[in-house]
Design a protein that fits this description.
Length: 326
C-alpha cells in the first residue's frame, strides 16, 4: 500500500507540471520563458540540496553533459511556450506520444535492436498525435502543438543521452544547474530585460512549485521507488500522467475534454502500452531491447540494481520507463 501511495503521489506530481504551467500562463501571471527559468532554478536548488544532504557528489561536467543540458533546455522552453495556446491535457498527450516516437527512432538510429511490437507501438502513438493535431474546428493551435513536439523531442534526446548516468539524481541536479543560467539569458534576450519584473507573485509561486515540488522532489521520489516498482509497473503507472493532466485541466482550468482528445488519448496510450509493457509484467524484458519511455516530466536514467545470490548480476532492466519531467 505504501508503494502504491508513493507511486500515485509521484505520477500526480508529473501530471501537475502541465496544469501548473498552463494555470500560470492563462491568467498572464508570468511570461512563459520566465516560468521556465524559475522552474529550472527552483528545481536546481532542491535537487542540489538533496544531493548535499545525501552525500552525493554532483559533477557539473560529465559524459554527454552538453547534449543533456541542450536537450533539457529545449524541453523546458518548448513546454512552457506551448502552454500559451494549448490545453493541459492535449499538451501532455503530445508530449507523452512524442517522447515515445523519439525514443523508438533514437534507439533505431543508434543501432539498438527494436522489436516489431515497439515499432508498432511507436507508429500507433504517431497516429494518435496526427489525430490530435489534424485540421478542424477543435484542432489545437498549430504553433503551440509544434512547440510541444519540440519539447517531446528534447525530452526524448535527454532520456537517450542520460541512460548511462551512474547517479541519476546527481546527474539531474547538474543538468538543472547548468541549464538555469542559459534559460535566464534566453528569457532576457527574447522577452526583454523587464520580463522578470512583470511576473506576479502568483505566477512566480506557480513556477517555484513546479520546479521545487513537482519536478525536483517528484524526480527524487521517482528514483527512490523505481527499483522497488520495476520497469514494467513503472511504465504502466506513467500512462496515468496525461490522463490526470486532462482531469486536472478540466477541474482547475475549465478545459472540457473533446472527442478529438479522447480519440487521441486512446491511440497514444494504446501505442505506448503496446511498445512499453511486456506481455508478462515481470519488469525484466529480453536483453537488448530498446529503452523505455520516460515519464511525462521525469528523466529516463537506469538505476543500479543489487547483485543476486552467488554474486551473479540479475538481467538488466530497460532504461527508466518518462521524465517523463521531469
Amino acid at each position: 500500500m505504501r508503494l502504491f501511495l508513493l507511486t500515485a503521489l509521484t505520477i500526480t506530481a508529473f501530471a501537475a507540471n502541465s496544469v501548473l504551467n498552463r494555470m500560470a500562463l492563462v491568467g498572464g501571471s508570468v511570461d512563459a520563458l520566465v516560468f521556465a527559468a524559475i522552474r529550472l532554478g527552483a528545481g536546481a536548488i532542491v535537487l542540489g540540496a538533496l544531493c548535499l544532504a545525501s552525500g552525493r557528489r554532483t559533477a557539473l561536467w560529465g559524459r554527454a553533459r552538453g547534449l543533456s543540458v541542450a536537450a533539457l533546455l529545449a524541453y523546458m522552453i518548448g513546454f512552457s511556450l506551448a502552454y500559451r495556446g494549448i490545453d493541459a491535457g492535449t499538451g501532455a498527450l503530445i508530449l507523452f506520444g512524442g517522447v515515445q516516437v523519439t525514443m523508438v527512432a533514437g534507439a533505431a538510429l543508434t543501432g539498438e535492436p527494436v522489436p516489431p511490437r515497439r515499432w508498432a507501438g511507436g507508429a500507433l502513438a504517431f497516429v494518435g498525435l496526427a489525430w490530435l493535431v489534424r485540421p478542424g474546428t477543435t484542432a489545437p493551435d498549430a504553433l503551440s502543438a509544434g512547440l510541444m513536439a519540440l519539447a517531446a523531442f528534447g525530452w526524448g534526446i535527454y532520456s537517450l543521452a542520460g541512460r548511462r548516468a551512474g547517479d541519476p539524481l546527481a546527474a539531474t541536479a547538474a543538468n538543472f544547474g547548468l541549464s538555469f543560467p542559459l534559460a535566464v539569458a534566453t528569457a532576457l534576450i527574447i522577452a526583454g530585460g523587464t520580463a522578470f519584473g512583470t511576473a506576479t507573485p502568483r505566477g512566480a509561486a506557480l513556477a517555484v512549485v513546479s520546479g521545487a515540488l513537482t519536478s525536483g522532489l517528484g524526480y527524487a521520489l521517482w528514483y527512490a521507488i523505481l527499483p522497488r516498482l520495476g520497469a514494467a509497473r513503472a511504465g504502466v503507472a506513467q500512462m496515468a500522467a496525461p490522463v490526470l493532466a486532462i482531469f486536472g485541466g478540466a477541474a482547475l482550468l475549465g478545459e472540457a475534454p473533446t472527442w478529438r482528445m479522447a480519440g487521441g488519448a486512446a491511440l497514444v496510450l494504446g501505442g505506448v502500452a503496446l511498445a512499453l509493457v511486456p506481455w508478462r509484467l515481470s519488469g525484466r524484458p529480453r536483453r537488448g531491447q530498446a529503452g523505455a519511455l520516460p515519464a511525462g516530466n521525469s528523466p529516463s536514467i537506469s538505476p543500479t540494481y543489487p547483485r543476486g545470490r552467488g554474486g551473479r548480476q540479475p538481467p538488466p532492466q530497460p532504461e527508466d520507463p518518462r521524465p517523463k519531467d521531469p
